[in-house]
Write a structure and sequence with these properties.
two-stranded antiparallel ribbon; 12 helices; alpha+beta; Aminopeptidase; 2 domains; 6-stranded mixed sheet
Length: 383
Amino acid sequence: MSKTKNKTKHPVFAVITRIWSLLFLAASGGIAYLMYYADILPAKYQYGGYAAIGVCFLILFPALFFKRFKMSRKVICLVLSIALVGCYAYGGNYLYKTVKFFSKITKINTADSSLAKRVSVTDDSYNIYISGIDITGNIDTVSRSDVNMIVTVNPKTHKILLTSIPRDYLIKLPSANYASDKLTHTGAYGIDDTLGAVEDLLGIDMNYYVKVNYSTVLKLVDSIGGIDVNSDYTFTTSGMKSIYTFNKGMNHLNGKQALAFARERHSFPDGDIQRNKNQQKVMQAVLKKVSSSKTLIMKYSDILGGIQDYMKTNFTGTEIRDLIKMQVRDMPNWKITKQNMVGTDSTEFCYSTGADQEVSVVVPDATSMEKAVTKIKQVESGK
């Protein structure tokens, strides 16, 4: 008799918990599906997550759905299930943003995809070409390529080499029957011309590219809480809307400051060469902070949301997932080194500016290029 009373004592509450149990079922299935679809966790974490979801479901669902359980147990299970659904919603938001991010930045046409010389990004060495366009806003807007950097990655030795090329380097423009032009002008003709010109100049493959612009730097640096860079000089920027002063030594920079630091060249005796070095300092600081476990966990959602509209790449979603899995699984301590290619200042007729006037260019130095290529190949081979 007492058992019957216990089962029917709170019929409304029993109905509520049964309805909630179905919502809990949907939430559990939903988060498991999102984990499978996003596919960014290493296998041991992925399967561990499935197991945890399954165990929690098996413990909580029966008490919520069936009437035979005591009121006290139903209340405890209801509270725990609500907390879990909150956790699922939080995790689901991360996973949704991840899928959305991959979809946006890898949305390229067939021609751009064919530019890739694909490798196993977790086993083989490869070169990524960073093309930084000198505008803010839409990443598809065509403009000059002011940042030209080769990022050589060896995932086995955990070494990264940053190689900067002067923006005014004299190159051969593939789309204009290899007419002479400045490297920065290739950005106006498309990423295929930029990659083709650099591959022709150095004789090495650019396996992938990442196209960014001013907005990428602003959003990315702010999303990770700023960066610390060591300046070689005390200097004040010029020719920009906002004026910034940087001190020799360590400086903590927000997005706007980092962009100004990377753009300035008139304050230095060697102009564009020092600007390239400062761009490398910004890149190194960003890579170091983004690859740390604390930043990945605490800022992951902010990073994806901040840069998804201002970055484009011909990495596939699967390749990016593999890189994330490797970083989460191994948490490798990447060693980053830098080098700069140099040349001789001169004036030349360029294809983009026509035959009416000569413009300032940097004539490539053969010895500098040879040394740069040798170092790239050494990193690739693991030496």
